Amino acid sequence: MLSILILMPFLSALGVLLPVSKAFRLKLFLVISLFYGLIVASFWKHLPAGEYHGFIVLDPLGLIMLSIIGFLYLSVSIFMMGYFNHEQRSTRIFMACLMLLLSTMTLASVSYHLGLLWVAIEATTLFSAPLICFHRNQQSLQATWRYLLICSVGIALALMGTFFLAIAAHEVHTLLLPSLLKGASSLSVDWLKLSIIFFVVGYGCKMGLAPTHSWKPEAYGQAPGMVGVIMAGALAQCSFLGLLRISQICNKTGLADFYSSILIVSGLLSLVVPALFILGEKNIKRAFAYSSIEHMGLLVLGLGMGAVGLYGALFHMINNALAKVIMFLTAGSVAQKYGSTRTDEVTGVIHIYPVTGVLLIAAFLAGIGIFPFATFHSELLILNAAIISRHFLLAAVGVSCLAVMFIGIGKIVLGMIHGKPKEPLIAKKENFYMNMAIAMAVVLLAGIGLWMPGALKHLISDAVLLTGAV
Amino acid sequence: MTTWVDTSCIITVFLALIILSNYRVTAMIRIFALQSFVLSLLPFFLHAYSLSGRDIFIVIVTMVLKAALAPSILFWAIRHVSMRSEIKPILGFGSSIILGVILIAGAFWVSSSLKLPGGKPASDLILPCSLSTVLLGFMIMVTRTRAVTQVLGYLILENGIFLFAVSLFDVMPVLIEMGILLDIFVAVFIMAIVVNHINEEFEKDLASVSRSKMGETF
Q: Where are chain B's structural domains?
């Protein structure tokens, strides 16, 4: 089943490359996303068996990731049914890259060999780069270049980390995760420490953790809204999965304290840096990119805080992805209607487009983490974990940074919603598909916030048990 | 065969240093191709007496991808650009070389304190030389302003990592080894396409942008 999940999008990418009509591509994309979502949903009943001699295995951590990817692609494919009505550019390369990205992200989620994981994550970098310069102009090319270069170097460092781990595991003589965990006591501690540092820098670069975050506002600011969703919601969290795999090894080898001290420092930096930049920001997509850095910081912080924090972080992975759907799709919808995402060019949204205006408010609240959206709960869990583990100062800094983000994003969003309505570029019409895709995520995120299903709770607890965090 | 391994390691670092002190893009690409060629022969020298099928396979794939295809893609990317030399590197000739030598010394100093567990490696030079090449590649990326040169810096960095990986080939299954090589190749391919787009964008409004800025990464 797992190889079908990887091969299906790959083959359909080839199909999309053929000279077919735009409508056919959109429909194929929707069908593939639906089918993908159904297969992943069937995994919630029982996990499939491993394939290829244990190189590809689905565990609870991978299932969380696959569910996120499945939902994101489903909502993006519905959104695109409306979005591409008004877009003249060719969608051939764009759709093919989205499909290849789906395939490689799936591979990253289920790979149980750290070398294979690296190959998959590097491939996601490559296939996401062409998505950023969909509107091929100087700014977007600049953003693509920056993304490609910074992330390639980061990923190259992660490759060094992988090789260092291979040296540390010279007695185990493989990089398969179960064998590494079984032979944890024979790993060479010095080389393991070195490899951990390279892994955190490398995969952290791909996640957009400060101080290697500089590509993020550029790339998310230039990319179309759908790409922002996939990159912030799925791609960045795939790299987080890499860090989770490392934490499995660290928890077995007694390096958990060493690892968590690194994670806490980088998490703290990623909370503080966006708070410094957000207040002067005028572009809503860039503001959302800073918010994404903040959320990545929270994830890493949670991972560094032991079992309670990890539970919060895993829960936050899901909520963050849903919130990113609301945020970036709404921003994409505004961008298409006004031809801009800057506060001085977009005003009075709620007067012209009432539904989009309401969704924009929802995006703001979900992104910041206001009740009833579930982001509120997971942020609280992570801060709670900080207090339990007696990092009082850290919790205080975290809360104040979140407050600054609230002010910064609130200023931009409210400025867009209110004010004198500005004549938009195209006809004053809401699009049903676009709004439905966003509304789906709003309902789901608020729903999880009000009532958390037992299955989800079990899945996250299983995942925490799997990593062996205490 | 240790002498051959040692020689290849030293040649790799030396070629990286030459690229660092070179301004002409075409010459840099050729030197990079030579470096990749030297590196791709390493498995022969390492396992000279017990050469297996996989060694030959890896040698051939590396040679084709790194020494032949990657350089030709880079040549393709710069085919339109009339200015084929680095315009204004952040660091000059002399200071580049001096800083490069300092980096090499640093790499040797660091690796003297790193002990490889489990048996002596084929050559003591592999670790320091690969670290030096990684650092030199990184420096080329940072101090050069043109897109093509930055790609070259990235490739040299990858060559450094490759040198390190060669000594551990038996840990990674050959398929994943291939995956890594293929990924790096696709990376160069996509980077070259983006470089080409950047050049085209600049050519569109040559009137407003001075010609010397062509191909620079903003």
A: 2-213
